Every structure is written in structure tokens, then in C-alpha cells.
Amino acid sequence: SVVWHYLSLKRQRFKWEGDFRLWEALLSGALVFVDRMAILDWMPHSFQHKKHLIMYDPMNQTEFENLLEYYVENEAEAEAIGLRGYDHTLAHHMAEDRVSYILNNIESKLKL
């Protein structure tokens, strides 16, 4: 099936919030499924469920299977989400963006 060429499943290790593999998957232009992570909510320019990627509860197998089945059957929507995830990552989540975020936070703490 064509869908497997643009579907990426990402499962975080227990209590491990994000790594470069998430960014790599998003930059592939694939539809990315990722388990829900707190880090995605507080980071600047956060990712939105069903707009940039698909978030799922790793403890809810039924939800995951329903989401997977839906996007396998709706390839155009899956491709559009994958492309939006790619564009959003490229615009807001490259290494330069992470370094700027960290340095700006340090600078704001140092100002008296």
C-alpha cells in the first residue's frame, strides 16, 4: 500500500520526552504518529494533533488502531498532515531554533 511510504510511527521510551528521531520523522514529510508527550505542549510553536502529526495514548490500543485505520483509508488527509508537519518543523524546530530558545531563556534569567 502506498500509505506505508509516508507513515512514521514513533514511540517514546518510558518517561523519555522527545529526541531527534521525532524531528527526523517530521522532516521526512511522513504522517507521524507519536505518543502524547508533555514537552509538545510547552515548547514554543507546539505541534497540534491532527494538524502537524497524530498523537495517541500508548495505553489505548483501540484508539491507536482506529486512528491508524482512519489515515490508511484517508491517504490525502494523511499526506496533508505530513506536509504540514514538515513545514512547521522546518519553520520552527530546527537546531538553530532550539539554541535560540535556550539562550533567550538564559538571557531573561540573567537580567536584573
Describe the model.
With 112 residues, this protein is mainly α. The chain has helices at residues 20-27, 39-42, 61-73, 75-92, 95-110, and strands spanning 7-10, 31-35, 54-56. It contains five helices and three strands; from the N terminus they run βαβαβααα. Helix 2 links the parallel strand 2 (31-35) and strand 3.
Largest sheet: 3 strands, parallel
Round the mean pLDDT to the nearest integer and report it: 81
SS class? mainly alpha
Cα gyration radius (Å): 15 Å
Number of β-strand runs: 3
Morphology call: elongated
Task: Put the structure in a nutshell.
53% of the residues lie in helices and 11% in strands. With 112 residues, the chain is mainly alpha-helical. The chain has a three-stranded parallel beta sheet, with helices on both faces.
